[in-house]
Structures are given as structure tokens and as C-alpha cells.
Design brief:
The complex is a heterodimer.
Chain A (H helix, E strand, L loop, with lengths): L1 E2 L8 E7 L3 H9 L7 E6 L6 E5 L2 E5 L1 H4 L2 E6 L3
Antiparallel strand pairs in A: 1-6, 2-3, 2-6, 3-4, 4-5
Chain B lengths: L3 E9 L5 H9 L3 E5 L6 E9 L2 E7 L11 H13 L3 E7 L3 H13 L4 E6 L1 H6 L2 E3 L1 H8 L4 E2 L8 H9 L15 H13 L7 H8 L9 H18 L3 H20 E3 L5 H13 L5 H37 L5 H18 L2 H17 L1 H15 L7 H9 L1 H6 L7 H10 L9 H11 L4 H27 L8 E4 L7 H35 L12 H9 L11 H10 L4 H10 L2 H12 L2 H13 L4 H11 L1 H28 L4
Parallel strand pairs in B: 1-4, 1-5, 5-6, 6-8
Antiparallel strand pairs in B: 2-3, 3-4, 7-9
Helix pairs in contact in B: 3-10, 7-8, 7-9, 12-13, 12-14, 13-21, 13-24, 14-21, 18-20, 19-26, 20-26, 22-23, 23-24, 24-25, 26-28, 27-28
The chains are: A alpha+beta, B alpha/beta.
The structure holds guanosine-5'-diphosphate and magnesium ion (MG).
Guanosine-5'-diphosphate (GDP) binds next to helix 1 and helix 4 of chain B.
């Protein structure tokens, strides 16, 4: 379990938990970032914002929240 | 009445194709107004078909209940409170889960829905097929597959619309654990007004909607919450969201077919993203884009500005005679209102280019790039868009703060915007640098812009320190795919916003000019705009105040006083008071020195943007902040002008 903020571009992650307030996690859920969901980190730690992608969908996450979204890296395959 | 009429909302996630669909349905029968009390555009279109009158309403894109921006709140409020006869829920087929989550919320609101599986072409490209027949049989309402951009599927949608009368409410809804269902039932029965739908009851239970006005309801809710959380040992909001997503997944499993796909375009998007959001390249690239924006605003706009100027000049020379009315038309109406209208091309181009950037997908990335330095300023990444607009005109800029998601960001941004040097201040700089700083024109003007930005930053930081202690609000947002922007759409949106500007500014300036002209003409018999006129008396009374800042002619005082109303008027007032454009340069050369010119420009930059901006600030964030904004800017403006003059004087520059 690591904060999204430490994940590098190109990894695939599974969302495990949010450590931010109710409103913020509600927002994340409505945007489709749900526990158990898998996303490709299309731009990650070496860049500024974190961009999670699933097909054509891209969700940008500012550095602040990226620290609070806990993920597990899934072996790419 | 034989004729039936229905109000139909077009709702969905942002970028799901609502506006495209709306346009296809309504053609050009479009009415653009405002949502009551706010300035978000409300687009309505009336169409009569098969003896039925349809009123379509394009509501702002939303993701759901967490909505904190004004736009999203409007969308949810419209659905919950206005209760349209049906909602066309535009779903992005290529992005099923999230879009369907919103769909779930809407059907829980107890509304009749006409679901549209839009972007079906994109979905196919990605190897996703949505079987509309299966959806229809699960929910008992027809689902329509469309490609809103090309119009495919629209006839099918019309068929459904024409049979609106028979439309049932969806029969399949998420089911929650028993204690939750019981609580929902109880709330709905006991508080039909506040919790009359499943959606509202659930939202009240999970804390998504906070009802303050009803003490009884609050008590019942907290009791129920306690009971449920104890019984199920789960956080309620999480549980409810989880059940909804399970519902979405179960539908997806039955109706959505995914084949393996090749992802070429995806890789391209990511390559662009890695480039434009790159830690080192992102910033410079962003600055370049901004520079280009302003470059285009002025180079493309200025020829038009010249035409308009010439046009107004010609118009004004057509009005001859010395009657009171002729002088009013000439000095007041044409030169005053003309002074604002000349900026219309620049403003249109600014709005147009921003719309293009928005449509291309770059603007939302830019928000992330900007987030890094906006953060340092204590502002939100998205704040840069309103701040940017501020260079064009503070009025639409303050209006744009509504796109920010929380109160704190809206307030701080609106408080910072007045220091962004708007295009109305530029003529003042140009007048003075042309006379006193011929060799350093652009440097002086640039440094004024810079000073404005620095003040904006300081004001925002200080206010944040004083009034807001909580952490910087998070930036999470969807990034639309890059695509070639539609110039037509951009022109349309720029047109609407420009028209709004003309209306607002036009009426205001008109009033101002009328007042100046009347005050400069009274009392009867005095020479127009002389020291004996009312305006001259007012100016003379105020002028000593500005002595420490180095300019104490009554004309300067008058110009500043009317600059309150609109800064376009400052130059115009000088023009009127110093006896016309021709005499202006020499008169200013006499009344000002290089140093006092500088302090005057600083004063012009900083003190009150204009009454219209203040009015908009008041409407957006309240009277208290608007008052504070006036106090801060007047104090700062005066203080800085005095500082510039006194320090310059000490250094022997004056
Ligand atoms: N490929 C494709 N593009 C679409 C479709 N519908 C809309 N678009 C495009 O998607 C973008 C967003 O559409 P818009 O109507 O502005 O979405 P809104 O934010 O929901 O109002 C525009 O560039 C449209 O041209 C569709 O069915 N297929
Ligand atoms: Mg739209």
C-alpha cells in the first residue's frame, strides 16, 4: 500500500483507500475512482499532476490528494 | 387543452455530449438566458413536434452530489427542485461506469428518464458495445444509441420523445441493506418535503445533503445514522456508494460487451500529457501559451479596434451643432460608450481563444500546471482561468469564479482579480507613457501589469491567512481527451459571452457618461466642464487629498472619481476636461511630471476596478467581501501612489 504520489508513470494500480475527508472521497467516487478499481498511471511521480487513465478517460489528481489516495501496484501484464 | 407540453432537461457528465445533442434537437430555436440569480448561461430551446411542445433545457454538466461549483449545483438543483417532466440522460458510452453512476442518482430522484447512449462511435472504436435492447428490458424504458456530433440516432430519440406520454419511471433501482432501506422509507414518509425521493433520503442519510432548517429531521437522521452504522459496522456514505457501484457493475455485466482493443490513440494522448504536464517543460509551455494568447488578442484585435474607433470618430463628426442635445450625443454618448465598445474585438478574441483552448483539452491540463504555482499563491489551480480573464475585463473574470469548487477559492480569486490590469486601464498607461516615458514605454507598461499581479498575490495570501485557515482545496478533475477544437462552437460561446459583456458594460457606461455630462454642464450658464461646473467644484474639493501623491489638479481628481464608475472613463474625462483630444498631451505635460504620472498610473491600476466589477463581486461572493475589496483597493492604491511619489521625490526623481 503506497500513496499514489510515489507511483511512477506507466504502472498499473488498484485503488485501496482514501485518506481524505468525506467530501473529497465522494468526489473521487463520482469521478469513477472507486476502491478496487484499476487504473493506469499515465503520468506519475516524475511529472507534476497524476493522471489516472482507463481507456480514453483521464482523471487528473493534484499532488495534494495524490498523497491521500492509497494504491497497490499491480504487475503489468 | 389539447396541446401537450413537456419540459425536458438534458443532463449528464461534463463532456458527454449534452450540448451537441441539445443543439441537434433544438436546431436554432435557442434562447440563451441566465439561471435565476446567477449568471451561468441557461440554454433553452422550444420545439413543436407531433402536436407536443418540447422545451429542452441544457443543464450544466455534473458528476453528482459532491458538486461544489456553482455550475454543478445548478444542475442538481434543477433536477431535484424543478422536477422536469423527463430528463434526457446523456451517457458517454465509452466511459460507462462513471456515467452510469450519475444515471443511477437521477433515477433515484424519481424522475422519468430518457437515457441516451451517446459517443457510441467512440465506444465501438474502443471495442465496447452497449446493447440498448438489454438496457431497455432491464429498466423498462427505451434506451437510444446516438452519436450526437453527427446526428446519428436522433430520429430514434424523437420517436421516444413523441411517445413521452407513455413513458414509465425506470423499474430497476439499486437495493440497499435492510436497515438502510428502512431508514429511507421512514425519512420519505415522515419528511416528504425534504426527503421525498430515495435520492434525497439517501443523500441526507449519508451526509451528502445537509439540512439545516429542520431540527426534527436532523435529530431523526443522526439517530438513524447511529443505528445503521452500529448494526452494519460500516460508514454509511461508503456503503451507499459501494451499493450503487455494484448496481452499475451488474448492469454493465449484462449489457456491456468489451472486446480486446488496441490502444494507439491513448498512447498519443499520454505522450502529449507527459510533455505538457512535465515538471520542467510544463510551466514554460504554459507561459508561452499565455503569451501567445495575449499576442493574438492584441495583434488580431487591434485592426478591428481601429475601425471601430474610426467609425465612432466619423459618427461623432456627423453630429454637429452646439445644442445641449448635440453635445450630449457627441461628448457623452459617442465618446463614452465608444470607449467601451472599442474593446469588444479584443474581448471577443480573448473569449474565443479561451474557448478554443478549453475545447482542445489543453485548458484543463493547464490548470494542473498552474496548480503548482497557484498553490504557492494560496489559490487553486483552476483559479488561473478567471485571473487570466481579468486581463481582458474584470467583470467576466469575477463571473468566472463560479466554476471554482469551493467558497474559499471563489472568494480569494474574486478578491485578487481586481488587481489584474484589465484592458480598460491600458489606455491610461498609453496616454501617460506616450508623453513621459517615450523611451521605456513597454517596460513601464509591463511593470505595471507585473505590479498588479504581485499585489493580487499578496492580497490573496494575506486574506487567506486572515480568513481561511483550512488546507488548500484539492484538485481532482476529469481531463477531456485532446481533440481538434470546433471553431464554430468557440465562436458561438465567445459571441454569447461578448454580448453579455456589451449589455452589462454598455448600460453601465451609458449611465456614467450621462452623469458626468450633466454634472459638467450644470449649473446652467457655466462653460462646459470648467472649474465652476459642479464637477469642477467636486474635483477642487477632493484634489488636495492627492497632493501627497503628486497630482492635485481638479481634473485628475475628477478623472479618478469617475474612474470609480469605469476606468475607460479616465482618459475620456481628461479629454473632456482638458478641452479635447488635441489639447490633451500639452495639458497633461503641464499638470503632471514623469514621477506624478507614474504615481497616477499606479493609482489607476490599483484603486477600485470599476463599480460594475464591484457589483459582480457582490453578487458572486457577497456584500461583505465587496465592501472589503473596495476598502483594500482604495487604501492600497492611494498608499502606493503616495509611496511612489514620495520615494521618487526623496531620490530626486520628481
Ligand atoms: N465522437 C463523438 N464525439 C462527440 C459525440 N457527441 C459529442 N461529441 C463531441 O464531444 C465534445 C463535447 O461535447 P459537448 O456537447 O460540448 O458536451 P457537454 O459538455 O456534455 O455539453 C464535443 O467536441 C463534441 O463534438 C459523439 O457521439 N461522438
Ligand atoms: Mg455543454
Amino acid at each position: 500500500m503506497v500513496p499514489l504520489a510515489f507511483v511512477e508513470s506507466g504502472s498499473e494500480v488498484e485503488i485501496l483507500d482514501f485518506r481524505c475527508g468525506g467530501k473529497c472521497s465522494c468526489r473521487l467516487r463520482e469521478l469513477g475512482i472507486v476502491k478496487g478499481c484499476r487504473y493506469l498511471v499515465s503520468t506519475g511521480a516524475k511529472n507534476g499532476p497524476f493522471i489516472l487513465s482507463d481507456g480514453e478517460t483521464r482523471i487528473g489528481i493534484g499532488a495534494g490528494i495524490a498523497m491521500k489516495v492509497l494504491v497497490r501496484e499491480v504487475a503489468c501484464g | 387543452m389539447a396541446e401537450k407540453s413537456f419540459v425536458i432537461a438534458v443532463a449528464g457528465n461534463p463532456n458527454s455530449g449534452k450540448t451537441s445533442l441539445f443543439n441537434k434537437l433544438t436546431g436554432s430555436n435557442l434562447k440563451v438566458g441566465n439561471w435565476p440569480g446567477v449568471t451561468v448561461e441557461k440554454k433553452e430551446g422550444k420545439v413543436v413536434r407531433g402536436g407536443i411542445t418540447f422545451t429542452f433545457v441544457d443543464i450544466p454538466g455534473t458528476y453528482g452530489i459532491s458538486a461544489r461549483s456553482e455550475d454543478e449545483r445548478i444542475a442538481m438543483d434543477f433536477l431535484m427542485k424543478e422536477k422536469p417532466d423527463a430528463v434526457i440522460v446523456v451517457l458517454d458510452s465509452a466511459n460507462f461506469n462513471r456515467n452510469f453512476y450519475l444515471f443511477t442518482l437521477i433515477i433515484e430522484m424519481g424522475l422519468r428518464v430518457i437515457p441516451v447512449l451517446n459517443m457510441s462511435d467512440m465506444a465501438e472504436k474502443r471495442g465496447i458495445t452497449l446493447h440498448e435492447g438489454r438496457f431497455s428490458s432491464i429498466f423498462g424504458v427505451p434506451f437510444v444509441k446516438t452519436v450526437a456530433s453527427s446526428g446519428k440516432g436522433i430520429p430514434g430519440l424523437w420517436k421516444v420523445l413523441e411517445k413521452m406520454g407513455d413513458l414509465e419511471k425506470p423499474k430497476h433501482l439499486p437495493v440497499y441493506p435492510k436497515p438502510v432501506e428502512q431508514a429511507v422509507g421512514r425519512l420519505m414518509a415522515q419528511f416528504p418535503k425534504l426527503a421525498g425521493t430515495r435520492f434525497q433520503a439517501l443523500a441526507i442519510l449519508d451526509g451528502g445533503i445537509v439540512v439545516l432548517e429542520n431540527e426534527k429531521l436532523r435529530q431523526v437522521v443522526s439517530e438513524l445514522q447511529g443505528e445503521i452504522e452500529e448494526e452494519l459496522d460500516r460508514e454509511l456514505d461508503e456503503l451507499i456508494a459501494e451499493k450503487r457501484y455494484e448496481f452499475v457493475y451488474s448492469i454493465a455485466k449484462e449489457c456491456v460487451e468489451r472486446r480486446l482493443r488496441t490502444e494507439q490513440k491513448v498512447a498519443l494522448t499520454d505522450r502529449i500529457d507527459r510533455f505538457v504536464t512535465n515538471r520542467y517543460l510544463g510551466g514554460p509551455l504554459f507561459l508561452f501559451a499565455m503569451w501567445l494568447l495575449f499576442y493574438l488578442v492584441f495583434t488580431v484585435g487591434n485592426p478591428f479596434v481601429d475601425w471601430i474607433n474610426t467609425g465612432f470618430g466619423a459618427l461623432s463628426s456627423m453630429v454637429s451643432g452646439s445644442s445641449i442635445f448635440a453635445s450630449f450625443v457627441r461628448e457623452g454618448l459617442i465618446s463614452g460608450v465608444g470607449a467601451v465598445l472599442v474593446f469588444v474585438p479584443n474581448i471577443f478574441i480573448l473569449f474565443f481563444l479561451i474557448a478554443v483552448m478549453e475545447d482542445s483539452g489543453y485548458l484543463s491540463r493547464a490548470a494542473f500546471v498552474a496548480d503548482r504555482f497557484m498553490h504557492a499563491l494560496g489559490l487553486h489551480g483552476k483559479s488561473f482561468i478567471p485571473m487570466l480573464l481579468g486581463f481582458g475585463c474584470n467583470i467576466p473574470a469575477v463571473m468566472a469564479v463560479r466554476t471554482l469548487e469551493n467558497e474559499k477559492d471563489r472568494v480569494l480569486t474574486a478578491m485578487a482579480i481586481p488587481y489584474m490590469s484589465c484592458s480598460a486601464r491600458l489606455p491610461v498607461y498609453l496616454l501617460f507613457v506616450g508623453i513621459f516615458f517615450t523611451r521605456y514605454q513597454s517596460t513601464v507598461v509591463f511593470s505595471l501589469y507585473l505590479l498588479g499581479i504581485i499585489i493580487a498575490i499578496i492580497v490573496a495570501r494575506v486574506l487567506r491567512r486572515i480568513f481561511f485557515t483550512n488546507a488548500v482545496s484539492p484538485l481532482v478533475m476529469e481531463l477531456p481527451a485532446y481533440h481538434v477544437p470546433s471553431l464554430k462552437t468557440a465562436a458561438r460561446s465567445a459571441g454569447i459571452r461578448t454580448a453579455f459583456f456589451i449589455k452589462k458594460a454598455g448600460t453601465f457606461i451609458f449611465g456614467t457618461v450621462l452623469v458626468i455630462w450633466v454634472l459638467a454642464s450644470l449649473p446652467a450658464g457655466v462653460p462646459y466642464a470648467s472649474a465652476q461646473s459642479i464637477i469642477g467644484k467636486i474635483g477642487s474639493a477632493v484634489a488636495p487629498v492627492f497632493h501627497p501623491a503628486g497630482f492635485d489638479s481638479w481634473q485628475a481628481a475628477v478623472a479618478l472619481i469617475f474612474g470609480f464608475l469605469a476606468k475607460e472613463v479616465v482618459v475620456g474625462t481628461f479629454g473632456v476636461l482638458y478641452g479635447g483630444q488635441a489639447a490633451l498631451s500639452s495639458a497633461i505635460g503641464v499638470h503632471f511630471s514623469a514621477l506624478s504620472a507614474m504615481s497616477f498610473m499606479v493609482m489607476t491600476l490599483v484603486y477600485i476596478p470599476c463599480v460594475a466589477t464591484i457589483a459582480v463581486i457582490r453578487r458572486e461572493i457577497g456584500t461583505k467581501w465587496a465592501t472589503l475589496s473596495v476598502c483594500i483597493s482604495v487604501t492600497l492604491g492611494y498608499g502606493l501612489a503616495v509611496l511612489v511619489f514620495q520615494v521618487g521625490h526623496l531620490l530626486g526623481l520628481g
